[in-house]
Amino acid sequence: MKQLFGLDTSSFKTLREENLIYIDKTRWILNLVTTGRAFFLSRPRRFGKSLAVSTLKELFKGNSNLFKGLYIEDKWTFKPYPVLIFDFNKIQNTDLNVFEDNLRFILFKFYKENSINIPDTNDLLLLFAELVTGLYKKYNQRVVILIDEYDKPIIDHLGYGQNGIDTAKNNRKLLKNFFGTLKASDVVDALKFVFVTGVSRFSKISIFSEWNNLTDITMHSDYADFLGYTDDEIKTYCEDYLYDFCREKKMGIEECLGKLKYHYNGYRFSEERDIKVFNPISIMNCLNDKTFKNYWFSTATPSFLVNLIKEKNYFIPGLEHAEIDDSMLESFDIENIDIVPMLFQTGYLTLKNFDGTLFSLSYPNEEVKKSFNKILLKTISEKSSTTAFAQKLGNAFKNENHEDIKFFINAIFNEIPYPHFKNADENYFHTIIYMALSLMGFNTKSELLNSRGRLDLALIFPDKVFVIEFKCDVSAVSAVDQIKEKNYALKWKNNGLRTIICGISFDTKKREVKEILFEE
What we know:
By secondary structure, the protein is an alpha/beta fold. Helix content is about 45%, strand content about 15%.
C-alpha cells in the first residue's frame, strides 16, 4: 500500500506517527543546529517553512523516536530543551491593541504550561524576557525560540491604502520592540537556538536590525534545496506516485518529469548554485490528483500584491525579464514599495541568472505565470466571458485565422469597463493581450531583448511563432517595419521555426484594434 501525502498538515510529528510521506530534510536541519545559534530564512508561502519549524521543535523536545531512519538519527544527541513557538499565522493582528493582547495571551499560556509564576506586570517586553530567563532557571537548559511567518502582521495590511500602511508600521514597531528583547544580555545567555521564518526579507532589516548574530540563510548556497523538492527527491520519495502519474499520462519518466517541472519547478534560491526546486504543495497535489492544476494559487489569493500592482500601474509584461541589483533584493519602504523585489521575495518571480551585479528575474513556472495573470485580468474584467474570449484568441492565432484574431481581441476589450481605459496607451493594450494569452497557458514571451531593441511579444507554438509588435493610432505597417528593422524574428528563423510577423495597431479613442498586418 502506498504511503499517503500529508496534504492537510505541516506537523512533523503527524507525518512520522501516521507514516505519511516525509521527504528527509534533516541533513540541513543538522547543519543548522550544529553550526550556529540564530538563523533567518525567507521562502514563499506554502513552501515548507512551518514543517521545518515543526521538525526543529520535535528535535529540541528530544523526541528521538520520530527521527528513526532519517539522516540525523545517529548524528544528534537527543535531549529535551524548553521550546517557545510563535506562529504568526495564528496570531490576530487587525490593529495594534489586538496584536499586543494576543502576544500577551500567548506569553501567559507559556507561563502556565511550564508552571512559572507570571510577573505582576502587563509590560509585554518584560513578560517575554522573564519567560525566557525563567525557563532557563527552571529546566537548567537553554531555551529554543522558533518564529514562523514573522512578517505576516506587516504583509497582511499592505496594498490597503494609508490605513493599511499605518497598521503595518505600528505592527512593525511592536515586533521590533518585542524581538529586541532577545538581544538583552541576560536573555542572550539563556538562548540555545533561534530560527525565524518569513515570506519576505525586507522587514528583517528593520525588525532585527540590532540583533547582529542573526544569520540570513535565504540565498545561502548550502540551503538552496533545503525547502522545496528536487527532481531526485521526487524520484526517491514519491516513486510510486510518479510512475502512476506517468502511466496515466502515457509518458516516459523523463518526459513526464519535464512536464511537471514546466508547471511546478523553477524556484532558485542561490546566485551561486543553479539548482531549482519544486513548489511542495503543488507537486504533491498534482501527483496525488494526477491532474495539472494551479494548486499554489488556490491556497490563497495574493490580494495585497494585486492591490499594489494596481496602485503602481506596473507594466505586467515586463515581469518576464525584470532586473534588479543585489542592493534592491532586500530593499523595502512600507510607504514606497518597489514591486519587483516584493514579487521576488514572495515567490511570484525567481532568480534566472546573476552576472555578479544584476539579478535577472522571471516567473518560476507555468503555474505562477498563468494564475497570476488570470488574477490580474480578473481585477480589470469580472466577466467570465473574458476567459472564453482569451482561449478563442489563442486558438485563432494557432489556426492563423486573421479575422478571428481581430474579432476576439476587440471582444476582450469590450469586456473591460470604460474607467479602466482612462490612461490606455500602447503598454495598456500590450498588457491586456499578454495577460489574456498567458492565463490560458499559451507560450508567450514578452519584452524580448536583442542588440537592436526590445520585442513586444512572441507567441510560440510547436510549429511556428508569431512575432508581434503593438502600436497606437498609427498604421500597423510601422509595427511590421520595426520588427524587420530590428531583426526581432531572427532568432526563430535561425532555429528553423516558421516565423510570422504581426503588427497590431490600436485606436485609443475607439478602444479597439484599428489594423492588423501579417507577413510570413
